[in-house]
Amino acid sequence: MSTDDDNPLTLLVTAHPDTGSLTHHVADRLASALRPRAVEVADLHREQFDPRFTPADRRAYHEGGDYPPDIAREHRRLDRATDLVLVFPVYWWSMPALLKGWIDRVFVNGWAFEYSAASGLRPKLQRLTTHLLPIAGADLRTYQRHAYEQALRTQIEHGIVDYVGSRRGVTAFVHESEQPSAGATAASVARAVRAVSEAVQAGPPPA
């Protein structure tokens, strides 16, 4: 993974069909907070990313190369980034299917990791720091009472981020996204954006 050390790139990935949604608002706020740092926004809906795992994806997964053109493009985009931020609405205590399909197709054998029966697992994304900014409809107490936050963190932070060797960044929830109080929503957004932007600007801890 190659980056420009003088102007490190942060890639924000969003998955929401409504450009007027809170998800897009949060991504825009975060992009503004990060500038003049280089920022690229990957709007998977606008770009019409195809999340379906095809026979070509399966062959590339098993062989570790010859990726479909749209996936090779995503790899090039991520190769330029030092930080990845996933900004998404929480659907059924997880990420939307579109974002999950992006992970399924992009974070594949031979690029994000290498695995064989002989040598086992070798993660390959150690230079990338991954941050999560989930937009949740329920309040913090509900997440704590039902352990929803821990479930989401386990599947994404441990199941994906750790598996490919990426550094864990900040996970900052926006809770009660559908509450009637605009002021409370704005405060929650401001806290989450500040947490992620400060973590990105601080950079990774020394090795």
Automatic annotation (TrEMBL):
InterPro entries: Flavodoxin_fold, Flavoprotein-like_sf, NAD(P)H_dehydrogenase_qn
One Pfam family, short name: Flavodoxin_2
Taxonomic superkingdom: Bacteria
Annotated Flavodoxin-like fold domain residues: 10-190
Cellular component GO terms held in the UniProt record: cytosol
GO molecular function, one term: NAD(P)H dehydrogenase (quinone) activity
This protein's UniProt keywords: Oxidoreductase
Protein family (similarity comment): Belongs to the NAD(P)H dehydrogenase (quinone) family.
PANTHER family in the cross-refs: NAD P H OXIDOREDUCTASE-RELATED, NAD(P)H DEHYDROGENASE [QUINONE] 1 ISOFORM 1
Name of the protein in question: NAD(P)H dehydrogenase (Quinone)
Organism: Streptomyces griseoviridis
